[in-house]
Amino acid sequence: MTSKSSFSRSLTLCGLGVALCGACSMRTPPAPAVASQPAAPAAEKHPTPPTVASGAKLVEVYGDDRFFEGPTWDPKSGKLLFTAFKGQSTQILRLDGPGKVSVWMDNTEGVNGTYRSKNGRLLGAQAFGHNLLSMRMGADGPEDVRSLTKSFEGKPYIQPNDVAESPTTGGIYYTDPDFGGKTKSSVFHLDAEGTVRRIITHLKVPNGLEVSNDGKMLVVGDSFEKRIYAYPIQANGTVDQGKASVFFDPDTRDQSDPDGMCTDGEGNFYFTMRGGVWVTSPTGKSLGLIPVPEFCSNVTFGGKDGKTLYMTCSKKVYSLAMNVKGFQVD
Fold first, then answer.
1. Which residue has the higher pLDDT, 3 or 198?
2. What is the set of domains in the chain, with CATH numbers?
3. Which one, of 33, 1, 58, lies nearest residue 321 by Cα?
């Protein structure tokens, strides 16, 4: 099934640049039901991934009483952008220094997952506005905000949650989970010509997703079955969901939901789920766990040398020194 996406050249934005200091059934993206779940039990022992720098420890770079998501590194400003939720109040924040943020975009209408496109623009899955957005990353806030698609076959999206882009074709993948009914969830693909296709329908609650570095595989986390699935990508950017396979499903007592994910320059995957950030090889072999005290919602690479891992969590944002560079940091 295909449908041409509609384009809207601008959205009304307000409240940019406000400074902060101190560090279909609709459900709010922050997932409070899982935020209180504990990290991996102390009795469970998992190795530290070899991609973590020797002796590195989690560093809290920001914290307040909100739920944080959607981290993306902006190489132009050399700063981290991430999303923040408290009830219906939603913003994109910029980390200006340890414990210091400014509001880069206010009243985002629920922008949750974000992704820096090959063309340098910021993609955003807008849950409350039912849109997939694209915006230029300006020095003081978003510029030239556009809606790439806001409906499929005449019906608005339920709640776009996360977004990723193919490094080879530029095709955009995004999840639209039905958190309430768990019967109408989908994953979509938007190609370079603006054609939208529904490509995955068998997952009850698709959440985070990512494309492998070679552009040949799409991985999607299912918050209902609490594991990661892999799909070979076909020539036109779609997938055959009949060829889906379980990519990662660690044996843990902690069953907190899988959420956001990213890759490093060596093709390893980083999955937020089950007690922190799990690292796997490009083929899904576990390389170990980075334990995180709070529920961890998403992860990305950044920093001046591209070797800092940033983790957004419930009420906290952490950084961790790494041995490897992220795949998408330049």
1. 198
2. 2-20+49-321 (2.120.10.30)
3. 58
